[in-house]
Every structure is written in structure tokens, then in C-alpha cells.
Amino acid sequence: MKQLPWILVGLLSAALLFSLFFRGCASPQSGQGDTVWLPVRVDTIRDTAVAPPVSERPAGTDTARLPVYRPQKLSGSASIPDSIADTVTVVSDSLSTGKDSVDVIIPLTEKEYRTDDYRIVISGYRPQLVSAEFYRRTQTGVVNAPAPKKKRWGIGLSAGYGIGLSGKTEPFLGVTLNYNLLQW
């Protein structure tokens, strides 16, 4: 009987070392799955080769009123001043009527650029973006966590009070093979 406490201390030490050694081999608990988090990566793609327009069609006309330049009459000198040397002057009957502007008809066009990734429509004289549609390839993945494995059978240390082989109630301390009825 004097050796019983030392045997129990040895068994408890062995159980402690066994549990520490095999802790990493345990199955994943709830909330742990096979989810792998990769570092965030941003790709920037610049495309300098613009594809020709898929379609180009007339979109109507626009009337713009442009100013008419009338040079001042030169007084006393037959040479052209440096300030208007680059200017083209047109002398016609319409200028002599005193108009300060002329209506000019400007044709408008609409161009459509399209690839697998985008669709862009540009329209007019002095182009303005009419619409843009981007088609991004997005892939979404869902990782399901595995259900925790319910372990019913186990080996453990037990302490209790029960009926022994002699028929008397006595305390018990030892290693047992057990079946778990409830888990928490």
C-alpha cells in the first residue's frame, strides 16, 4: 500500500506527458477549417494599344457660332503689322455686312470601343464619354469548415466512490476506459 501513491503519481505524470505530446495531433475543433489566407495582391495592367472602334456612325450635326476676325485698316503704312502676320483674312460680302460671327456646321460622330473587359461609347465633336461598362472577371470561393468529430470513446483518469469487489462502498482513483454520454 505504501507504493500506491507513487504509482498514481507516475500514472498522472505519464498521462500529462502523453496529453502534451499528442496535443498537435488533435482533430480541428469547430470554427477551424481548411481556409488559407493569401496576402493581398494588386495587379495594375496598362494597355497602350487601343483597339480600333467596333462601330462608327454619324450622330447628327451641331451648329457652332465662331467669331470672325476683321483686321483694322492700316493707316499710312502698306506693311502688315506683326500681330496679324499669321492670320488668314477673308474678304467677302458677308464680312462687309458687319457680322461679328459665322455659323459653322460641325458633324458629330459616335464611336464604340469594345473588348471582353469593357465597352466604351464616345460621341461628338469635343468628345465626351457617353457610357462605360466594365466586365470584370470575379471568382468567389466558399470554404466550408469541417464538422467537429464527436469523440465518444476515451481513456482518462477517474476519481469517484463506488461499490468494490468486497461489496463495500469505497473511494476509487485510477485509469478508466469510458464512453462519453454528454459533451461540452
TrEMBL record:
Record-given protein name: DUF6808 domain-containing protein
Write one Pfam family the protein is assigned to: DUF6808
Domain (DUF6808): residue spans on this chain: 100-181
